[in-house]
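Input/output pair, single chain:
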Amino acid sequence: MQFVKNGPEVPEKLLQAHEEGKVVFFCGAGISFPAGLPGFGGLVWKLYEKMGVTPDAVQEQALKAGQFDTAVSLLEAVKQTNEWRRDVRQEMAKLLEPDYSLTNATSTHRALLQLSLTKDKKTRLITTNFDRIFDKAGEQEKLNYPVYKAPLLPVPKNRWNGLVYLHGLLPEPLNSAELDHLVISSGDFGLAYLTERWAARFVSELFRSYTVCFVGYSLNDPVLRYMMDALAADRLLGESPPEMFAFGEFKKGKFDDEYKQWKAKNVTPILYKSFQKHYYLHKTLINWSNTYKDGLSGKEQIVATTAPFKPTSSDYYNEYARKLAWALSDPSGIPAKTFSNLIPSPPLSWLSVLDTIELKGEELNRFGIFDSGIKPEATFSLFCRPARSSQSPLMALSHSSYIEPQWDNVMRGLSKWLVCHLNNPELVLFLQKRGGVLNSQLHFLIEKEISEQIKQKKDGNNAYFEELIRKSSDAVLSEEMLTVWNLVLAGYCAHSPHHHNLYSWADEYKNTGITPALKSKLRKALAPVVTFRKPLNSLGEEYRDGLKKYLDWEVDLSTSFAHSAVEHIARVDTWGSDISSIFYDVNALLIELMELKSALGGVDEYTDYTYIHQPSISEHPQNKDYNNWTILIDLVRDSWLSLLEKDATKAKSIVSIWWLTPFPIFKRLAFFAVSKFALITAAEINGWLEQEDARWLWSVSSQRELLQLLPHLAQRFDAVNTSRLLANICLGPRREWFKEGLTEEEFDHLVIREQWLRLEKLKQAGLVFDEEAEQVYQNIKQENPQWELDEEQKEEFPFWMGDGSYYRDTSPSPTNEAELIEWLKSKPDHDHWDDDDWSIRCKNNFTLAKNALLVLEEENIWIPERWRQALNVWTESKRLSIKAWRSLANVFLEMDELKLKDIAWNLSRWLKNNTNCRALREEQYFSFVDRLLTAPYDFEYDEVNDVITAAINHPIGITTESLFIRWYEEKPNDNAGLEDKYRERFEMLVTNESDVYNLSRVIVVTNALSLYRVSPEWSKQHILPLFNWENRDVATLAWRSYLWSPRLHKSFLVSIKSELLDTANFYEDLGETKEQYSRFLTYVALQKYEEFKTKELASAFSSLPENALYEVVSSLSDALSNSGDKYREYWNHRIKNFLIKIWPKEINPSEQTVNQLALLCINAKEYFEDAMKLIRHNLTRIDNTEYIVHCLKSSEVIELYPKEALVFLDTLLCDEPNFGPPFELKDCLNKILEQSPDLSVMQEYQRLNNLIRRFE
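Output:
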C-alpha cells in the first residue's frame, strides 16, 4: 500500500501483521532529523569538533569507514580519565537537544506512538536513540505508557507494555551514572551484545515473538550490525524468526543494489526515493498513522470498502482478495459479521474466490489453532479448515449421527452471508462439490430462512420481500430454487464417503441371506441421489425455462455399476426365491425416484421418459442399461414375479396399486403383469384403457407394454369388451396430447399409423373386427400397403436402438469409425426433441469422435453443432482438454475463419479453461488468441442491454479474460512494464473501433488497476483516456466496466481524479453501476487523499441526483458502523468532516435517504447530539420509521441524550402513519422519561404520546 504519492510501497504482509498487533517498530536516529538532530555519524563528527579533537589517522579511518562506535571509543580514550569520558558524554547530550520550534519536529514520533498502540491500548515501541522527543510527543498525543531504559528491560512477550530505550535515555538532570549506561561506544556495544548480553537477549526474544520493522537506520548502521550479529547467532541454533522489514533510502538508479544489500541481511526493505531529508519516510509514517488511528486500515474497513464490489481476476494480483480473506479471518468474527450485514450483501462470486485462497498450516494460529502435527505443506481455506480443539468432537468409540465440529465466530458470520444468496444456484453447486452434506448449523439457518419466506409469502408481506431484495437480489427464493433447497436439506445431494457397494452386499447375502440389516444396507445402496450441474449457455442456445434456467440435474443411485452387481447377485441359487422379500423396498425406492424427478420438473403423471431409458419392462436386447437407476425397474419386476409364485393374491393387489400410482412406469408394470397372467378381469382392463378419454391406449409412454398386452386381450375379451376396445381405437387419440409443432397433415398421418398398429396387433392375434373397425383397417391398408409388422417387434418401441432403418428409430452413435462418420453425416445437428449419445461418445471414445470429425472436415463437410458438443465435453475434463489440445490445436489454427466463428464460443471457453496448461506452447497459445480475437463476428452493439454480461459471455470477452489469466500467472511486477506479447494485444483491444471490441474493452478496463501498476505510462496513454467524458459513449462503457469491481488504490485514483469526479455529472449514464459509483465516491472521500481537495469533492457530491444520496448516506453509516474500536476517531476525523465540508446542503432528501440519515445519527453513538446538529435540516417526517425506532431503543442514545432523542423522534414521526405508530415507540418514550421525567411536559412528548393513544 502506498501512503504518499511516489512514496514506498508498504507490503501487505506488514500491514496485516500490524493490524493483528504483531509488529514492533525499532527506531533509529533517522526519525529525529525533523527535530534538527544529527544521525549517528553526524553526532560523532560533531562530538570530535566540540571536544576540540582533530582525528588522527586511526580515528579518521574509523570515521570514514562508518565505524562510529569505534570512533567514540577512540575519542573517549584520548584521555584515560573518568572526567574526560564524562565530559564527552555531557557534550553529546547537548548535541542531542531537539529544536521543537521546527515544523514537524515531533510529527514522526507522534505517528510512531500511534502506530505502536495496540487495540488493547498497549504501547510496544523500541528506540536506540537517547533523546527525549518521544516524551514530548507522548504529552502532545496525551498518551500514558511505561518507560524502560537500559539495562533494565522488559520481557518482550504478550504482557509487554511500554516504550523501550534499548541503548539508554538521556537523564534529566544529567548525571554521570546514567550517562555511563548509554550504549554508544564499541565497548558499550560489547557489554550489551557480547559480554553481559542483556541487549542481545532482549533482541533475540523480540525477534521470536514479533515482526520487527526498522525505521530510521541506514544500511551500514553499527546498531543494525550488532543486532544482525545477535540474530545470526540464534539462526545457528536453529531459530527461525518472522520476516523483518526496514525502511531504507535509495538514490536514483540504485534501487536494485540497495534492495539486494538489505536482503543479504535477511531484511525485507521498504525503499523510498532520496528526497528532502527523508521526506517520503516521514510522510509515509504520518499518513499511515492517520489511517491506522481512524481505523481506515482496520479489518472491518477492508470488508466495507472491498466486499460490496464484485471480485475480478485482477484481485488476486492486486492482493485485494487475500487482504479480504485475512480480514475475515479475525477470530472475533466481527469482520465476518460485518461482511454478512452489508447492504447490499457482497456478491456470491466472492465465495469461490475466498475458497481458492490457500491458508498454510502456519496461518491457522489466527483462528486459535496451534498444532505442531499439521504438515507444513498442508493447505486449507476459509471455508474448509481444522477447528480449535475446544470446538472439535471428542474422540470416542461411538457418537450420535450429527456429531461435528462447532463453528467458530468466523464461520458463523460467513454462513449468514451465504443465506442471503439462496436463490443463486452457484451456492448449491459449491456445496455439492464439497460433499453435499450440510453442516447442521448451516442446515438450520437455511431451513429457518425458507420457513420464514414461506410464512411471509402466505401473509402477503410485500414489505418483507422488498427489504430482502434490497439486501440481495439473490435473497428471495423462486419456486424452482425452493425445490432445489428442499432436496439439498433432505440429503438428496449428499455424496457419502462410505461408498455403497452392491458387490460387498452380495458377499454378505451369500453368508446370511436376507436380513433386516441387509435390507437396510440395500435401501441405502439403491437410494436415489440428485446431482446438479451448471447449464451450458452457448450463443444461440434455446431459451431455458423452469428449473433448467438455473441448473441441469440428474437423478441416479447411491451405488455404481448396479446392473453388473445385480447380475452377480442373481447367480446365487437362493436369489430367485429371496428377491420377493425386497419387493416393497425397491418399489418404494422407484416411487421415490420418480417423485424426485417430478419435483425437479423432469416427469409428470403422463410422461416420465422411462420408455427411452428402459424400453421394455420384460427382458429385451433394447434394454441397454445405460442408466444406473433402471436397475430398480428390473428389481421391481423380478421381485414381483417371485412374489407371484408365493402369494398370488398379494401380487394381484399390487397390480391394482401400480395402476393407481401416478407415473407411466407403473402403468407399464401393470400392463406387463396382466399381459403375462390373468390377474385382472377383462372389464377392469377395459376400464383402464378407457380412463381419461383412452389416454393409455395411445400414450407413447406405455406403448411397448400396451402392444404386448393387445394380443392377450384378443384371446380374453368377450364381444362386449371387444366392441368397446375397437370403438376407442377407431375414435383415435386427442390432438392436445401431441406437441404443438405438428402440422395437421403430420398429425393425421400419425393417427392413421397408430390405429393401424393396434388393429394389426389384434388381427394377427385372431380377433374378428366389427364392421366399423374392419372398414377403418381396410382403408388404412389400401393407402399404406407397405406397412407390415416387423419380425423383431420394432414397431412396439417408440425408439429403436439399431440400424436406423425404421422410421422412428433413434440409433446410438456407432463405435466403428466408418459407421460413425456416416451417422454424423445423417445427423449433422443435435435434435432437441430426441436426445442422442454423441456427448457420451465424445467423453468415452475421444479418439474415435475426434477422428470422425477430422475426416468430415477433410471432406469439407462442416457440422458445427457436433463440434460444439464435442468441445463442451472436452472443456469439462482436464484430461480430455489436454488430449484435444495436442491433437486439434493446429486444426483450429488452420481452420477457415467462418468455420472458426461458428464454434468460437466453445473454443474460447476451452482455451480459457486451459490457459495455464503446460501442453499449450506459448506461440500456439498466442496464435490461438489472435485467431479468436480477430474472427469476423456478427455483432450489433446497439442491441446489447447489459454490456458486461455480454462481454463475459462472448468469445472475444472470454478470450480477453484468458489473456489476463495467463498474464497474472507470470506474476508481473509493479513498474516493470508490459512485455511486447501482451502490450501489442492489449493495445489492439482498446484501440480497434469495431463495435465488437467494445466487449474486449470491458474486460481490459476491469483490469485497469493492474495494468496501471505494471505499466503506468502505457496506461496513461492507452487506458486512462477511456475514462474521459469528452467521448461520452466510450467513457460510459469504461466507467460501467471499472465500477463493476472498483478498488481503492491511491496512485491510480489520483491519475483519474478529474474523470472520477466528473462522473457525478453523468450519473444516470452508469446504468446498473450507478449505485456502485455513489458508494465508491463516498469511500474515496473518506480516505482524505490530499490530492482530492475538499472543494472538488463537495462539487462532485452536489452534482449527484437525489436518488444517489441514499447510497452515499448508507455508505457513511456502514463505514461508521464498521470502524470498530476506532469509531470515535472515525467520527471526528472522517464522517464529521464529510458532513460539514462535503455533504450537499441544498437538497430535498427522499424518505429512504432520511431513513439512512436517521440511522447514521444513531450509529454515531456518543456523538448523537453532534450528528443531529449537522444533519437536522435534512431530517423530515416520514411514514416508515419502524426500524429507526427499533434501533434507537436498542442503542445507548436514549440514556446519553434523552431530550435530543425525544426531539429526534418528533422530527421523524408523521401524524398519520399508514400502519400506526412504530411498535416500540411507547418503550422509547418510557425509557426517555426514566432518564428525565420532566420531559413529559415538552410539546414533542405530548404529540408522540397522543399519537400512540390514538391508535391504541
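The longest strand covers residues 244-250. Confidence is low (pLDDT under 50) at residues 538-543, 803-810.
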